[in-house]
């Protein structure tokens, strides 16, 4: 039997396929405007990897902001609950999940069975999200992978104090005009995200193991600076971006 | 057949409040009219036959009728900041442009009584009104309390001002103070407050016969009609209806699965709509820190009324220090055996909202109670992010499950 979890987020759509024990396939695509189509496509891509068809899926659970737009879902579950469940499955010792997605960030406290006991969300300001990184990378003409590398190589960090992406961008322009090294500006941008997220997460009890999930987990700079801020080691797994989808697939498996 | 049983008494309460406003419109020329703040000693004015109106209550009405945003914008065009209390902005907007506002605005006041035990905004709000209407203003200064028990010098300070308020009202209105009448009014006020406490306590039953939005509708008389027979009468009816529900095992939320505590002022423009996803998940708000603010610990002592009233005025929830507030919330959570707490971080009400984060942490640690903090505003729906709130509520309900 196979089970599917589809996580339609603000920027990407993710799918995870489970059999009774293992993760057998996963896919990530841009969500675009048409969420219904994105959900269908991301699931099709995951199915194709293992040569399965939609009919082979016993149950499908949808999550993410676009969860209600996922066609033929058996059930919808919020991404908070799915991230808790998925992270626990990936690492049973996880007690805190920090999820930084495209449009929001969350702190989730989970117990020993992966059940959410507390959470906090930021969706007011973009300066703690993946979108902020995208906007800034674009402004500094760097691709996202190199953007993270540069942040780690910086000798110093400029201070970015604006809480709004648009104003932070003008702040960056000011730093450029003042002749600050590019790496220092980029490091400052990463630090700004880490600072916002750390401040948000302080509203829930932060206990180890702390896991970073969501698309921004792929950015080593944010992870490193969050470790500094929280004074804790942060676990980043290759499945970081599909943790929510895995959680959804687990709910599908459990019926 | 509606999915959720309706309370007939709420209709009676709404009718009483309609009559309250109509009567004030009609009587405004015959009797002196005072605007008062929600934490003010209305019993003194009631004793002297002074009509009273509550701009805060009017603000809530503007919110419930979804007129608040338009009226706030009128005030904002005049230079009032968007960060200012939305009751104040709604009312000031209606003062500036009464046409088309609820009740076409409130009748003009002859005197103003501002008591700062609920916030500091009222000071400036009432100064604006005093200036606009050219009417006298009495500021009753109630110091913030840092100890659970009111400090003796503070009690004396407020008592002295209550005496001064009586003399001032006599002078301004030309009406005489009647101690005997005062006792009658206080007795009715005590009865109203005690009924309100009993009504709220019925939420302790499992399942609860009452949900927080019902109390938000029902609270108008405890605010505006304390010390009157109408309030006593209408609350007796409400209490009887709730007791009948308890006897018949009728739940406000059929199949009650979760019992929740609400913190802060209601979201007036989504009064029942807001609670619907909770109700659909079987969650009933069996108690709240907002309407609890009108159930006093002890009645006013008729033999030493002013000192006793001073104590009550000092002990208003948002005039108390953080630890005492956290204790009150924890006590509610325990007595009503709740499974979780939802806090409305209300942009408008800084004195209520400022301590919420710490209260949340305290309650979470002491009782390991799931809590949810939602950012919104009591009247200004521009501060209500539906998508964000819906996501949080859904995740919170999953967390309870």
Task: Describe it.
With 255 residues, chain A is an alpha/beta fold. Chain A has two domains: 1-91 and 238-255, ATPase, nucleotide binding domain (Nucleotidyltransferase, domain 5, 2-Layer Sandwich); 94-236, ATPase, nucleotide binding domain (Nucleotidyltransferase, domain 5, 2-Layer Sandwich). Chain A is 40% helix and 22% strand. Chain A is built from eight helices and ten strands. Chain B has two domains: 8-178, Rossmann fold (3-Layer(aba) Sandwich); 181-400, Rossmann fold (3-Layer(aba) Sandwich), CATH 3.40.50. Chain B contains 17 helices and eight strands. In chain B, the strands form two sheets. Chain B has a four-stranded parallel beta sheet with strand order 2-1-3-4, with helices on both faces. In chain B, strands 6-5-7-8 form a four-stranded parallel beta sheet, with helices on both faces. Chain A binds chain B through residues 65, 77-81, 115-121, 123-124, 203, and chain B through 357, 364, 370-371, 373, 375, 385, 387-388, 391-392, 394-395, 398-399.
């Amino acid at each position: 039997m196979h089970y599917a979890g589809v996580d339609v987020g603000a920027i990407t759509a993710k799918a995870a396929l489970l059999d009774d024990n293992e993760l057998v396939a996963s896919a990530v695509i841009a969500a675009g405007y048409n969420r219904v189509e994105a959900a269908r496509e991301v699931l099709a891509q995951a199915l194709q990897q293992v040569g399965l068809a939609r009919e082979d899926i016993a149950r499908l659970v949808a999550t993410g902001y676009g969860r209600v737009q996922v066609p033929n879902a058996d059930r919808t579950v919020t991404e908070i609950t799915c991230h808790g469940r998925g992270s626990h499955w990936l690492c049973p010792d996880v007690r805190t999940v920090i999820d930084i997605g495209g449009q929001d960030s969350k702190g989730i406290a989970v117990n020993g069975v992966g059940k959410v006991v507390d959470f906090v969300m930021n969706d007011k300001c973009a300066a703690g999200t993946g979108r902020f990184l995208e906007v800034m990378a674009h402004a500094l003409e760097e691709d996202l992978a190199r953007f993270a590398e540069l942040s780690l190589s910086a000798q110093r960090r400029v201070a970015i104090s604006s809480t709004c992406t648009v104003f932070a961008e003008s702040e960056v322009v000011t730093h450029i005009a003042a002749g600050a090294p590019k790496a220092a500006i980029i490091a400052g941008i990463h630090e700004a995200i880490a600072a916002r997220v750390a401040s948000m997460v302080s509203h829930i009890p932060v206990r180890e193991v702390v896991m970073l999930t969501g698309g921004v987990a792929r950015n080593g700079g944010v992870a490193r600076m969050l470790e500094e801020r929280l004074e804790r080691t942060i676990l980043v797994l290759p499945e970081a971006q599909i943790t929510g989808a895995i959680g959804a697939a687990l709910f599908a498996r459990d019926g | 057949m509606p999915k959720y049983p309706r309370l007939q008494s709420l209709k009676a309460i709404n009718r009483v409040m309609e009559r309250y406003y109509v009567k004030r419109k009609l009587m405004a020329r015959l009797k002196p009219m005072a605007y008062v703040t929600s934490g003010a000693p209305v019993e003194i004015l009631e004793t002297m036959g002074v009509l009273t109106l509550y701009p805060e209550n009017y603000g809530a009405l503007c919110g419930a009728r979804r007129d608040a945003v338009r009226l706030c914008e009128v005030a904002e065009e005049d230079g009032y900041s968007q960060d200012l209390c939305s009751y104040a902005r709604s009312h000031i907007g209606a003062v500036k442009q009464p046409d088309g506002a609820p009740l076409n605005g409130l009748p003009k006041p002859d005197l103003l009584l501002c008591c700062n035990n609920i916030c500091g905004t009222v000071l400036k709000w009432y100064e604006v009104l005093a200036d606009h209407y050219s009417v006298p203003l009495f500021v009753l200064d109630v110091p913030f309390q840092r100890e659970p028990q009111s400090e003796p010098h503070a009690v004396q300070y407020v008592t002295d001002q209550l005496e001064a308020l009586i003399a001032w009202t006599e002078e301004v209105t030309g009406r005489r103070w009647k101690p005997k009448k005062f006792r009658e009014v206080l007795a009715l006020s005590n009865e109203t407050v005690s009924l309100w406490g009993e009504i709220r306590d019925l939420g302790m039953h499992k399942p609860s016969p009452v949900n927080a939005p019902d109390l938000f509708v029902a609270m108008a008389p405890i605010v505006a009609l304390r010390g009157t027979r109408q309030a006593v009468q209408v609350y007796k009816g409400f209490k009887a209806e709730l007791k009948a529900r308890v006897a018949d095992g009728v739940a406000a939320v059929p199949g009650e699965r979760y019992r929740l505590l609400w913190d802060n002022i209601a979201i007036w423009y989504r009064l029942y709509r807001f609670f619907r996803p909770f109700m659909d998940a079987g969650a009933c708000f069996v108690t709240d820190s907002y309407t609890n603010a009108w159930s006093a610990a002890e009645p006013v002592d008729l033999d030493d009324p002013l000192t006793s009233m001073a104590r009550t005025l000092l002990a208003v929830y948002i005039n108390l220090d953080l630890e005492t507030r956290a204790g009150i919330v924890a006590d509610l959570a325990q007595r009503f055996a709740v499974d979780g707490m939802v806090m409305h971080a209300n942009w408008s009400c800084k004195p209520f909202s400022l301590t919420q984060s710490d209260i949340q942490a305290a309650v979470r640690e002491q009782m390991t109670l799931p809590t949810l903090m939602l950012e919104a505003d009591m009247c200004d729906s521009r501060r209500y992010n539906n998508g964000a709130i819906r996501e949080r509520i859904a995740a919170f309900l999953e967390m309870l499950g």
